[in-house]
Amino acid sequence: MAVTIKSAHEIELMRESCRLLSLVFDGMEKMIKPGITTAEINQLGDRLIREYGGIPNFLNYDGYPASICVSVNDEVVHGIPDNRKLKNGDILKVDLTVRFKGYESDSARTYIIGNVSDDVRSLVENTKNALYKGLSVVKAGTPLSLIGKTIEDYAHKNGLSIVEELVGHGIGTSMHEDPDVPNFYTKTNVILKEGMTICIEPMLNLGKRSVYLDDNDWTVKTEDGMPSAHFEHTIVVTKDGYEILTGE
Length: 248
Known about the structure:
There is one protein chain. By secondary structure, this protein is an alpha+beta fold. It has helices spanning 8-29, 38-51, 118-136, 145-157, and strands at residues 55-56, 69-72, 75-77, 91-100, 103-112, 161-162, 168-170, 177-181, 197-200, 203-205, 211-213, 220-222, 228-230, 233-237, 242-244. 27% of the residues lie in helices and 25% in strands. The strands form four sheets. It has a five-stranded antiparallel beta sheet with strand order 8-7-9-14-15.
């Protein structure tokens, strides 16, 4: 495993990439409402990334056919944009990666469309909370495994299951770098160090944790058809904690 420590210059370049990503999210959020199609969200996201001088790095990544991952309801991640219209009661997960000046930024947010049940609203809120619980233990010298344990404990305490087939990751000049950052406890010898840049991204389900790959070979869905939520930040580990690079 080759975990890279970023220099101050590299971290500044990642800040720039992440600032661009946050601006793209701000632009897309204005159009996320009932009646919009996931294809239209993708089109706007692609245009904004390019207007700000970035590269939509999901596009053609291992053959992925779009610039933004947009996943609805029981789709956990890697939903492919199409002509489906968002409707009242949906939840939408938007996963966005931008390349800027050779450095990657990666973030995901879940949006509630109109009115949803209390259970679904709680799923979304607690998935976001789980991300920040995981962040709360981050600082140089902490075992990486504590992030996953903290997220796992919080999720289970709130009756949510954890997708274990997908995990967070290191990030830098590549979208996915070492180390893996699981959302559940797993034994590892990795210790967090100042200057590490990682993505923490809990994916929690309202029902059971089991998932399957759709026939399109990309979209991961819950096996029981229950909704799933997803939040992600790119961060840099500091001596005493962390800095979120991808906005709040």
